[in-house]
Design goal:
6-stranded mixed beta sheet, 593 residues, elongated, 10% strand, 20 helices, Rossmann fold, 4-stranded antiparallel beta sheet, ABC transporter transmembrane region fold
């Protein structure tokens, strides 16, 4: 398995393929919906026209002898029963089809977002990403349902046109001319539709993203007293969104009006042409009513088709927006089959147990390299050798490549060269290998969720109380719990706003300790800790955590003195390594510490 690369040369599946996969996801529900549409549309559009025709022919004396009033009543009752069967089918099929499909698509979308390189930021703001889950995903199951309306609609139009041709070929052909003209206009307008809807979606995404960023930076806004500027920028984005939405809706409304008035144009053609045939007795009042009824059905299909063409263009835009979030995924990743648990008992979450091969004895890194795209920054030809039970510290000036080294080692950034061996075994996919119970990592800026302290530490892990208590003690959080309002059940607020910087770092450390990994990787963990708390943390880690193996970025003298091995980086390269005394022998290197 190869590491995921930020580059992405593949394209997402075309919209019609995505819709087809959605149909194949729940084919039996789709078939129920197709049958429901058939019953409803036939009983709503075909049968009433025929009944109306025979009714008018009956009262004008033009009806066949065998077609009496009770036959008309029977057809009316049958039509109503058919409509009710269709409505029941909609409820039976559409609701679960839509719910299951959107959940399935959102699951695949989220899963592939989580497969992105961990150090790679989303291409757009979190607010815009949320808008794609909320607004773009539902477009796909809607089309899967609308296909049935188109299929049955085409069947009805074929039957309707055939019936009308059997009555009068010239009138039918002339009455259909407005629909042909509207179809041509619709085909010419598709590019404009796509452009307006794309701009509207982009503008909406910017507003949503800005709202999310503003809520997440309320304190920064208040400190900088930037409320006026923030409000002005929000007003500007809202104005752009309003203009884009108005252009989109106005253009769509004009097309809808054109579609909906096509039947009236067709009716006008019938009135102009049918007079002489009525006088000659070859065209009845019932025929006229049937023409009007069936032209209305054809008009509905024209209107619906026009709307569908516009939405299909919008769907392609939506798929492109979702694809941006899944960089590196296969073209069919969004519609990959998989179970959806909407009812019944949820499956148990199984966490991998630590196997004998997971125990760390040696970790060897040779020639590890990575360069950021369109940049000269990165790391080059890094060698590391870690033994079980040791503390290895990576240090150097700001920008020397320390964090990049950890990210490349853990697979959060794709290495361009080098080898990584765990107990002598080559690791081809570090992004999936360096996870608990083998490895745990705390970034330089830990992320907490707006949830309880307990949930932020466990993140769903079913840990024993003794294991959790030990993790809290190792992270020097045991005394802090007594001061928190609800202990482990304390709500930490967005991004842990109710905690201090040091507490946030120690909660992230406890999150690592509770998983009992073989390798602990810290990126400047103690930067927000006072000297006493930092000393207590490292004392507890190496006194009570067994043979803890740590790879740490730090500048703190206390950590450097405790280190078994120090690696000094400068400009992405190792310039010195050894014990603190050894690396400090060179005054130039000592200046980098």
């Amino acid at each position: 398995m190869k590491s995921i690369s930020p580059s992405n040369t593949e394209k997402h599946l075309p919209a019609w393929r995505v819709i087809l996969h959605n149909v194949q996801f729940l084919p039996w529900l789709w078939m129920i919906d197709l049958s429901a549409v058939f019953f409803f549309r036939v009983c709503w559009q075909l049968i009433p026209g025929l009944i109306t025709r025979h009714f008018f022919n009956l009262i004008t004396g033009d009806a066949a002898v065998s077609f009496g009033i009770w036959t008309i009543v029977a057809w009316l009752v049958a039509g109503e029963l058919g409509r009710q069967v269709g409505r029941y089918g909609f409820v039976l099929a559409d609701v679960p089809l839509f719910a299951y499909s959107t959940t399935w698509l959102r699951r695949n979308l989220l899963r592939n977002i989580l497969k992105r390189p961990g150090a790679s930021a989303l291409p757009d703001s979190p607010g815009e990403a949320v808008s794609r889950f909320r607004g773009d995903v539902p477009e796909i199951p809607l089309f899967a349902i609308w296909i049935n309306d188109i299929l049955i609609g085409l069947l009805i139009v074929v039957v309707a046109v055939g019936t009308l041709l059997s009555i009068s070929v010239p009138i039918t052909l002339l009455a259909l001319i407005p629909f042909i003209i509207v179809g041509f206009i619709s085909s010419r307008a598709t590019h404009r539709i796509e452009y307006y809807q794309s701009e509207s979606r982009k503008a909406t995404g910017k507003v949503t993203g800005f709202i999310g960023e503003t809520f997440g930076a309320v304190q920064a806004v208040k400190v900088a007293r930037a409320e006026v500027g923030i409000s002005a920028h929000f007003e500007q984005l809202s104005t752009e969104r309003r203009k884009a939405a108005i252009r989109n809706q106005l253009f769509t409304a004009v097309l809808d009006s054109l579609y909906q008035n096509t039947a009236s144009l067709g009716t006008g053609v019938i009135l102009l042409l049918a007079g002489q045939q009525m006088q000659a007795g070859t065209f009845t009042i019932g025929d006229f009513s049937l023409f009007v009824s069936y032209l209305e059905s054809i008009s509905l299909l024209t209107t619906f088709t026009g709307m569908l063409v516009a939405r299909y263009k919008q769907l392609d835009v939506s798929l492109g927006r979702m694809w941006r979030l899944m960089t590196g995924a296969s073209p069919d990743a969004l519609t990959e089959p998989g179970p959806v648990y909407m009812d019944g008992t949820l499956p148990d979450v199984v966490y991998p147990a630590k196997a004998a091969t997971d125990h760390l004895y040696t970790l060897d890194v040779t020639g590890l390299s990575y360069q950021y795209p369109d940049s000269e920054n990165g790391i080059s030809d890094i060698d590391l050798h870690l033994k079980r039970g040791t503390l290895t510290v990576i240090t150097g000036r700001v920008g020397s490549g320390k964090t990049t080294l950890l990210r490349v080692l853990l697979g959060l950034l794709p290495k361009t060269a080098g080898e990584i061996r765990w107990n002598g075994e080559l690791i081809d996919a570090p992004d999936t290998f360096f996870v608990p119970p083998r490895c745990a990592y705390t970034a330089q800026v830990p992320r907490l969720f707006s949830n309880t302290l307990r949930d932020n530490i466990l993140l769903g892990l079913d840990a024993r109380a003794t294991t959790l208590a030990q993790a809290l003690r190792l992270a020097v959080l045991d005394h802090d719990l007594a001061e928190l309002e609800a202990g482990l059940e304390t709500q930490v607020g967005p991004k842990g706003v109710k905690l201090s910087g040091g507490q946030i770092q120690r909660v992230a450390a406890a999150r690592m300790f509770v998983r009992q990994p073989e390798l602990l990787v810290f990126d400047d963990l103690s930067s927000a800790l006072d000297v006493e708390t930092e000393r207590a943390l490292w004392d507890r880690v190496f006194d009570t955590a067994g043979e803890a193996t740590c790879l740490v970025i730090s500048h703190r003298k206390a950590v450097l003195r405790r280190a078994d091995h120090i690696i000094v980086l400068d400009a992405g390269r190792v310039v010195a390594q050894g014990t603190l005394a050894e690396v400090c022998e060179d005054e130039r290197i000592a200046g980098l510490l």
